[in-house]
């Protein structure tokens, strides 16, 4: 498996900034022809580096509620139904449609960004965190949100599907039932394939 070169990284950076760029426009930026860029993008898709092109919706344009940043201080060592307070809160927030981003601090507290509809942010918070051990929360109204995806300076590293170690140039790549998998060594590939076959036989 060949490592990503500087041209691959530059192509990924341009696509991350604007996935609707034409291959010819990208080619002009990286010094390649349009078809050459197309070939590289196809290879990046086949190796699983690019998993698809998505629509990046600017939710601020949809006016889907009041944008807020909320800092949630969880009670230390408290739990709900066998889970830690953090696990319970994160599970609750995953199911909340209004929540767009969740961050966990090193202290084990939560910061979230949400667009809350209705008339009362306080009511939404009370309902969302009902029954959870929350010591305190702080709400900040957000005036403007800007997020710029960047790939520049990031070292890409594929992970082994068997052991999660980094896959380097000595690794192996294979396709099983239409899916591409990467492995750090032939042993991991063999173990993964054997387990996959056993699961299929038992299905």
UniProtKB/TrEMBL annotation:
Boundaries of every HTH asnC-type domain copy: 4-67
Keywords annotated in UniProt: DNA-binding, Transcription, Transcription regulation
Signal peptide: none
Highest taxon in the source lineage: Archaea
Example of a GO MF term: DNA binding
Gene3D superfamilies: Winged helix-like DNA-binding domain superfamily/Winged helix DNA-binding domain
SMART domains, sorted: HTH_ASNC, TRASH
Alphabetized Pfam families for the sequence: HTH_AsnC-type (PF13404), TRASH_HVO_1752_C (PF24273)
SUPFAM superfamilies assigned: Winged helix' DNA-binding domain
Entry keyword annotation includes Nucleus: no
UniProt-listed PANTHER family: HTH-TYPE TRANSCRIPTIONAL REGULATOR LYSM, TRANSCRIPTIONAL REGULATOR, ASNC FAMILY
Protein name per the record: AsnC family transcriptional regulator
Organism in which the protein naturally occurs: Halorubrum laminariae
């Amino acid at each position: 498996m060949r490592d990503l070169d500087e041209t691959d990284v530059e192509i990924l950076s341009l696509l991350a900034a604007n996935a609707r760029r034409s291959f010819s426009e990208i080619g002009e930026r990286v010094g390649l022809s349009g078809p050459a860029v197309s070939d590289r993008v196809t290879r990046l898709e086949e190796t699983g580096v690019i998993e698809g092109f998505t629509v990046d919706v600017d939710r601020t344009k949809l006016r889907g509620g009041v944008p807020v940043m909320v800092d949630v201080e969880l009670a230390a060592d408290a739990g709900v139904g066998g889970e830690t307070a953090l696990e319970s809160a994160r599970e609750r927030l995953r199911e909340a449609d209004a929540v767009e981003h969740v961050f966990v601090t090193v202290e084990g507290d939560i910061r979230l960004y949400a667009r809350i509809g209705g008339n009362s942010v306080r009511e939404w918070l009370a309902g969302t965190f009902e029954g959870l051990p929350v010591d305190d929360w702080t709400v900040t109204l957000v005036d403007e949100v800007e997020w710029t995806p960047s790939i520049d300076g990031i070292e890409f590293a594929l992970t082994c599907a068997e052991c999660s170690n980094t896959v380097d140039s000595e690794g192996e790549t294979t396709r099983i039932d239409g899916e591409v998998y990467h492995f750090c060594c032939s042993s991991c590939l063999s173990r993964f394939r054997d387990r996959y076959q056993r699961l299929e036989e038992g299905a």
